[in-house]
Amino acid sequence: MTQAIKKAVLPVAGLGTRFLPATKANPKEMLPIVDKPLVQYAVEEAVAAGITELIFVTGRNKWSIPDHFDKAYELEAELSKHNKAKLLDLVQNILPPEVSCIYIRQAEPLGLGHAVLCAKPVVGVQPFAVLLADDLIAGRERGCLTQMVDLYNRYNCGVLAVEPVPKKETSRYGIVEIQTIEPRVGKIHSIVEKPAPEVAPSNLGVVGRYILPPDIMVILENTRQGAGGEIQLTDAIAKLLTKRTVLSLEFEGKRYDCGSKLGYLQATVEYALEHPELRQDFERYLHGLMAERLSPAQRKAG
Description:
The chain has helices at about 40-50, 65-70, 75-80, 85-90, 110-120, 120-125, 145-155, 215-220, 235-240, 260-275, 280-295, 295-300; strands at about 5-10, 30-35, 35, 55-60, 100-105, 130, 135-140, 160-165, 175-180, 185-195, 205-210, 245-250, 255. It has a five-stranded mixed barrel. The protein has a two-stranded antiparallel ribbon with strand order 2-3. Strands 7-13 form a two-stranded antiparallel ribbon. The chain is of the alpha/beta class. It folds into two domains: about 5-260, Spore Coat Polysaccharide Biosynthesis Protein SpsA, Chain A, CATH 3.90.550.10; about 265-300, no CATH class. The model has no long low-confidence stretch (mean pLDDT about 90).
């Protein structure tokens, strides 16, 4: 019998060094894309996929994350006092009432695998999802995790979200070797953490969405430090492949690497262009800005 995916682990203990000094006191997961923090997009994707228990693995200086998902009495009282019903509804309904949050402290930054292992007492013996808020994924019709849960329900096995990456960038990803079993779906034969382009088994990179069986926790307990001196989730998945089937899914949608400054800016611009309150004014602004930047020769040619 297939167990429903109801728990999701969100590792949010990273230091966000690529965004310093902005992340010196503010978690990178709380950086806004237009009017919502990155972590809220990941949470909304999880909730849409049927998740009812969110397990945040946090670190130092991450108090604003639980504060964001908690009740804000003073703010709500002020909004109510001034009859700002729309804003009050926004802050009161960040999470549906049936969804609960649990916060676990990762005492040391020992890698993604270790962060997932920290959630073991709460995950127990159930399959679970992992979402990395750095990877903002805009689903075309259904969210990435919803697509993965659907695949999990059909095959009753682990699922990793993947996408083709430029060959020269394989050293930034876990790379999988697969046997295609249906369009966009493959059975994973091997997975390698950050291989050089000349030895990468493919150009399919794993991105920040996983559905994993509870067995992975036992494997993580016995996984030694790997690339970067960290306990790598990829290494544990490689061992899992010797015991269980794990599938890859080339999801439908667009991923923004918001762990990089360029990806973050791309997401901000493109989400603003889709925002119902901003899109027309923002599009006009961008057109005007680009016109200003054109040289006289470019303007004449255009």
